[in-house]
Design a protein that fits this description.
346 residues; alpha+beta; BirA Bifunctional Protein, domain 2; 2 domains; 7-stranded mixed sheet; two-stranded antiparallel ribbon; elongated; EC 6.1.1.20
């Protein structure tokens, strides 16, 4: 059979098979069968060396024409098959729009996140800025810059996770205060809070955790007095726990404040009469505070004869437990959805 007749016959066969296929897989098989590297058209072209110089351009042009005709037919058939499959799929997957929709479960902020953001908003409204710092802290900023030199007995109150002799997981967020004051070196006043995670070697139980959250505040300026601290804490307690809550300040000790105080709030369960929640005292301890120690100011570059300030620190977990009646601190970290979903609107 001559080459020309062979190409014409292949074109006819291929076009007939293209018309008969009903799936994309079969169509691809036809493409490979006739147009592939091992197909008959390629085989014909390989034998063109045996043709005369006059026949080669004629056969070459015909071969290209046959190849293009088959390719166009395959593309057209492919479009038809895809459209048919789409219509069939739409018929099979018809959606009943009258069926009720599936409810979408919407999450919410964690209770601790809500408490922290509420406290942040409260203090931002009083002119405080929110600052952050590293959780892996140096011994200097975690202790020494806060009037806790090496060997100070008060360090025993904060069993620490040391990484090296000079690096540890911070035991409170007070280092952020020390870093901020050290950055300013007495050039400007400081009014800030610093929320964040802290770490202490402790046995986990209903009221203790080796990792918990703290929010500490600092205000340093000229003529800052203890009465200013009491006013800020009183506004904090009333806005967070209710306008009917009262506060009291009791003398205490912290190495980085002098004088130091503990703040109690009146018990909301008994309104000060005494109950099991407040251990019959009528008051519940909520945070520690005091005037910034002159030595802390001096180490940060502030002249204690000119500047004074107050600092306070609180635990959002404890505040959440008191405000919402949570009886175990571990509920905040065990990710029990039954507990967490109660406070999506908190």
């Amino acid at each position: 059979m001559k080459v020309k007749e062979r190409l014409q016959q292949l074109e006819k066969e291929a076009l007939e098979k293209v018309k008969q296929v009903t799936s994309l897989k079969d169509l691809q098989d036809v493409r490979v069968s006739y147009l592939g590297k091992k197909g008959p058209i390629t085989e014909v072209l390989r034998g063109m060396g045996k043709l005369s110089k006059e026949e080669r351009p004629v056969i070459g042009e015909l071969a290209n024409k046959v190849r293009q005709t088959i390719t166009d037919a395959i593309d057209e058939r492919k479009a038809v098959i895809e459209e048919e499959e789409m219509e069939r799929q739409m018929e099979e997957e018809t959606i009943d729009v009258t069926l009720p929709g599936r409810p979408v479960r919407v999450g919410g902020p964690h209770l601790l996140t809500s408490i922290v953001e509420e406290i942040e908003d409260l203090f931002i409204g009083m002119g405080f800025e929110v600052r952050e710092g590293p959780e892996v802290e140096t011994d200097y900023y975690n202790f020494e810059a806060l009037n806790l030199p090496k060997g100070h007995p008060a360090r025993d109150m904060q069993d620490s996770f040391y990484i090296t002799e000079e690096l540890l997981m911070r035991t409170h967020t007070s280092p952020v205060q020390a870093r901020t004051m050290n950055q300013y070196q007495g050039s400007k006043s400081v009014k800030m809070i610093c929320p964040g995670k802290v770490y202490r070697r402790d046995t986990d139980d209903a009221t203790h955790s080796h990792q918990f959250t703290q929010i500490e505040g600092l205000y340093v300026d000229k003529n800052v007095r203890l009465s200013d601290l009491k006013g800020v804490l009183n506004r904090f307690a009333k806005q967070l726990f209710g306008e009917d809550r009262e506060i009291r300040l009791r003398p205490s000790f912290f190495p980085f404040t002098e004088p130091s105080v503990e703040m109690d709030i009146s018990c909301k369960m008994c309104h000060g009469d005494g109950c099991s929640v407040c251990k019959q005292s009528g008051w519940i301890e909520i945070l520690g505070a005091g005037l910034v120690h002159p030595r802390v100011l001096k180490m940060a570059g502030y002249d204690p004869e000119v500047y004074s300030g107050f600092a306070f620190g609180m635990g959002p977990e404890r505040i959440a437990m008191l405000k919402y009646g949570v009886d175990d601190i571990r509920h905040f970290y065990t990710n029990d959805i039954r507990f967490l979903k109660q406070y999506h609107q908190a």
